[in-house]
Design brief:
Blueprint (H helix, E strand, L loop, with lengths): L23 H28 L15 H14 L14 E11 L6 E15 L16 H11 L14 H14 L3 E5 L2 H12 L4 E6 L4 H10 L2 E5 L4 H14 L10 E7 L11 H10 L3 E5 L14 H5 L8 E5 L9 E5 L1 H10 L1 H4 L6 H15 L6 H22 L12 E7 L2 H12 L2 E2 L1 E3 L9 E6 L6 H18 L9
Helix pairs in contact: 1-2, 3-12, 4-12, 5-6, 12-13, 13-15, 14-15
Length: 498
């Protein structure tokens, strides 16, 4: 395929694809299906109160979970929950060993109670893990140094960073991260979700306005809501709408008092994990400078995976990292480890060390995991003396583009942009979630399917995550099988057919 992983926004072949238009009949079918499910569910719940004694709370006790709040779990998710949480018995390499499960039904009601393992395992092509550069494989070049760190520092520090949870590896990792992303300093967290959910409340609060993309990750939503800041939402990657929201906020000021905001923080993602799209970072930076706002960029899916040197969305868009006030990322996607980081000016990071709950109370990253990340970053930067990192970046770029183009050309509705390792394929009809997952597993492919409430009601999808560890033969066979599944389930919604 011979692609170039260093093409930037604005290049002719690096365009932003709009959301495909869902066919009218499909949309009607989706709404009708949800309507039938909800109606039948409420009817069954009505009779369940009288004929299923276990559904009633004990005398004198209030129910722990209300029927209304638990309705979706019981009547929708519960019917297809075997599509998720599948245990594996191997590293998250290009192929994984998936433990087979079977459903367990209630003897009276026939409801699905749970799943149980059969004792058998299935060798499957892994199209769902975030192992973008293959550093999570058993034969990873980081393995030797990680085992050495395990011998020296043990599995865990058993402490938060501000107590006894800091080793030389933690300090070295923060130095490497800061150099890698182009910032003065960085602070690491033990959990990726916690990086946003505890980091944002330390940066914003009452009197602050957070302007968030409508498709931002749940960790950003949790962090913004728990901060006490006012939240405004703009349309996904719509720079004009973002400017409208900023101008309105500046003109109107804070609610009731109309005093000026203490600060305005724009929060976006580098790659949106359910769409596979890059944010229009250069245009957002221009707005940030024009209106004197702050900018927070979540690079969970972009850092290490995109750009000519693997340095994320700033790298691929040509934006100077100095123009982004806070760079956030995780180590779970490209580096084969756990945790996350915030990178910014040194004064900001020093403030966060003593005011961020993720630093003060949460356990620090395992020392061997620190070594894993350090080794992976140095390989990507070429500091190991090889071109291993460069080859991995080229491989993930070529693999993602090949996979996306093949599916799109066959007539599937596929989201995302060239170079993005996230390749969503639209299912729309919720019943297809289970069927697609089951059909793929029957063909030895492990995939991740996504539906409401993680996506809007109409936009159920399967999210493929492509890795540099995938061979072209792996992807060719996967495309062949997905085409068969797509034809079986009627998923070729586009008119452009081969």
């Amino acid at each position: 395929m011979g692609g170039k992983p260093n093409q930037k926004k604005g290049d002719d072949d690096h365009h932003k694809d709009s959301m495909p238009v869902i066919p009218l009949f499909t949309a009607i079918t989706v709404y009708f299906g949800w309507g039938v499910l909800i109606f039948c569910g409420h009817v069954r719940d009505f009779f369940r109160r009288f004929f299923v004694p276990t559904s009633k709370p004990q005398p004198g006790y209030a129910p722990i979970v209300s029927d209304f709040e638990d309705f979706y779990t019981r009547r929708a998710y519960g019917r297809i929950h075997d599509c998720w949480n599948r245990p594996i018995t191997s590293a998250p390499a290009s192929r994984i060993s998936v433990i087979e499960r079977e459903r367990v039904y209630h003897p009276v009601t026939g409801y699905t109670l749970d799943t149980r393992e059969t004792g058998r395992s299935l060798d499957a092509l892994n199209l769902g893990s975030y192992n973008y550069l293959g550093f999570g494989d058993n034969d990873s070049p980081t393995k030797e140094s990680v085992l050495a760190a395990l011998d020296k520092y043990a599995v865990s520090t058993c402490s938060a960073r501000n107590d006894a949870g800091t080793t030389p590896l933690h300090r070295e990792l923060e130095t490497v991260v800061a150099r890698y992303v182009g910032k003065e300093a960085a602070m690491i967290f033990g959990m990726g979700f916690g990086t946003n959910s505890t980091g944002l409340p330390a940066l914003v609060g009452p009197g602050t306005l957070v302007i968030s993309d409508e498709l931002n990750h749940a960790s950003i939503v949790v962090g913004a809501r728990s901060s006490g800041a006012k939240i405004a939402v703009f349309k996904h990657s719509n720079v004009k709408d973002l400017e409208r929201v900023i101008r309105k906020a500046i003109v109107e000021g804070q609610p009731r008092t109309h005093r000026p905001w203490r600060r305005i923080m724009i929060v976006v993602e580098g790659i949106y994990s359910m769409e596979g799209e890059f944010c229009p970072l250069a245009e957002i930076v221009a707005l940030k400078k024009k209106y004197k706002c702050y900018l927070y960029v979540d690079e969970a899916h972009s850092i290490g995976a995109v750009g000519p040197t693997g340095k994320g969305v700033c790298d691929i868009t040509g934006v100077d990292p100095a123009d982004v006030d806070i760079l956030m990322g995780t180590f779970t996607k490209s580096f084969g480890a756990v945790g996350g980081y915030l990178a910014a000016d040194r004064s900001v990071i020093e403030y966060l060390r003593y005011h961020c709950m993720g630093s003060v109370y949460s356990p620090s990253i395992s020392p061997p995991a620190c070594q894993q990340i350090i080794a992976a970053m140095k390989i990507i930067l070429g500091e190991d003396g090889t071109d291993n990192g460069k080859k991995r970046l080229q491989a993930i770029y070529d693999n993602a583009n090949y996979f996306r183009d093949e599916l799109r050309d066959y007539g599937f509705h596929v989201l995302g942009e060239p170079g993005s390792p996230v390749v969503p394929l639209m299912l729309y009809v919720p019943s297809q979630i289970k069927h697609f997952s089951a059909e793929c597993l029957a063909r030895n492919m492990a995939v991740v399917v996504v539906g409401f409430p993680a996506t809007p009601l109409l936009l159920s999808r399967v999210r493929f995550c492509i890795s540099a560890a995938h061979t072209r033969k792996d992807l060719e066979e996967a495309v062949k099988q997905i085409k068969i599944v797509g034809d079986t389930l009627g998923l070729r919604y586009a008119k452009k057919l081969c």
